[in-house]
Write a structure and sequence with these properties.
Helix content is 41%, strand content 25%. It starts with a strand and ends with a strand.
């Protein structure tokens, strides 16, 4: 069964806001079993909204829309829908009371602008909004059913999951199944080359890619006679994709790289300390965005200045003077100092030149040293030169550090952590 996503808002058509709602909805509808054939973005113009709705209703069995249900004058979605279905607007008393209570709870006075959010096309299926003032609603346009939700992401997501998805699930063809793999470490072209021929080897599958710097998401969509057959086909094709990508495929669906690393550390029972310079606390931020970081993270020291590297981590000033703050020697000393002052099992450090200035022929912008110190006294240092702007270099450096931690967790048994290893600079 086909489905279309309609995103409404001038801020979207002008590029002032990224359309994350549309991407999220398309993924959720695909997971339910719909074939999402079209995604339309239209500005806050009544005529163009009506035109888009009527066209989509002729092509799709289900239309799911967000945006334009607010209290301001440019929120015209409800009026446009009423015009599209040829219905008058009617005020819903229950919705009006809910809006009044939320407005008054916020210490404001109910206004006509707020009240208009309780107006719906006559006969609409009203979708209450438990966490906002804009209810949603559903209507039928010919053979198509269309649902309209607020544009605020958290309100939209909850309304879709609790109210829209249950209403449309039975309409899905239910002959699709999709898996999503998260990868890091290969460019999109290299991922595509590794997966060449998978679709031919598993007829009925389609491999899709989504680049989200610095990751590549691989989507395996299978279509078969039944949901069970599609799932079996998808699982077999996904196993082949995993085998071809190897360790570059680090997780599934909503996994994050930092979250996977955190789980690996907890599984080992290891504690972690971090010393950051060029990344300015980004590694620690990525880890602490995930729940449960307190189980393993003991320290994240942003030692940006040379004096901080010496005074907090104990890096010898002569080492900095002779080799420079961006060097394998200083990176190693930073990691060892962080492990020493924290008592952590492992310690990670990063030092580099994020730019846009500060580079040289010997150490160009993008030069980064990442070090990992273990409790046995062994320290490993990796040298990388990343391309991109300052933010991209910082993010790539952070991922490189997290990747070193992940490799340590998955490649070493606990007893091997005690094996001796010398400091080395790996290119």
């Amino acid at each position: 069964m086909t489905c279309a996503v309609l995103s409404i808002g001038t801020e979207l058509t002008r590029g002032e806001l990224a359309n994350s709602n549309g991407a999220w909805l398309a993924a959720e509808l695909t997971a339910i079993g719909f074939e999402v054939t079209e995604h339309v973005v239209v500005d806050d113009d009544r005529g163009r909204i009506v035109e888009a709705l009527r066209r989509l209703a002729q092509r799709a069995r289900v239309v799911v829309s967000t945006g334009g249900l607010g209290p301001t004058t440019d929120d015209v979605t409800t009026e446009a829908v009423a015009a599209a279905v040829g219905a008058a607007l009617a005020r819903d008393a229950a919705s009006l009371d809910h809006i009044r209570r939320r407005v008054e709870k916020a210490g404001r006075t109910m206004t006509p602008s707020n009240a208009k959010q309780a107006d719906f096309p006559e006969g609409a299926d009203i979708l209450p909004n438990p966490i906002g003032t804009a209810p949603g609603f559903g209507v039928r346009i010919g053979e198509c059913v269309a649902f309209f939700m607020p544009g605020v992401p958290r309100e939209m997501k909850r309304m879709f999951e609790e109210q829209v998805a249950p209403r449309v699930r039975a309409l899905a063809s239910n002959n699709l199944f999709q898996s999503r793999l998260r990868t890091f470490g290969l460019p999109e072209s290299a991922v595509g080359e590794k997966l060449a021929g998978v679709e031919q080897a598993f007829p009925g599958t389609t491999i899709g890619y989504r680049a989200h710097f610095p990751e590549i998401e691989v989507k395996v969509l299978a279509k078969a006679a039944s949901h069970a057959s599609a799932r079996d086909l998808c699982e077999r094709a996904t196993a082949e994709v995993r085998a071809r990508l190897g360790s570059y495929a680090y997780g599934e669906a909503d996994d994050t790289f930092a979250g996977v690393v955190g789980r690996a550390l907890r599984a080992r029972g290891w504690t972690l300390a971090i010393a950051e310079s060029c990344t300015g606390g980004l590694v620690g931020h990525m880890l602490t965005r995930e729940p449960g970081a307190s189980d393993f993270l003991l320290l994240d020291a942003v030692t940006y200045a040379n004096s901080a590297k010496s005074q907090i981590l104990g890096v010898d000033e002569e080492t900095i003077r002779w080799h420079g703050a961006v060097s394998p020697e200083v990176a190693g000393a930073m990691a060892e100092g962080a492990r020493r002052v924290s008592g952590a099992d492992v310690a990670l450090s990063l030092t580099g030149i994020a730019g846009p200035s500060g580079g040289s022929d010997a150490k160009p912008v993008g030069t980064v040293y990442v070090a990992l110190a273990r409790a046995d006294g062994a320290t490993e240092v990796v040298h990388r030169v990343f391309a991109g702007d300052r933010a991209q270099i910082q993010l790539l450096a952070s991922y490189a550090g997290l990747r070193m931690l992940r490799e340590l967790c998955v490649s070493r048994t606990p007893e091997r952590v005690g094996e001796a290893s010398s400091l080395r600079d790996r290119g």
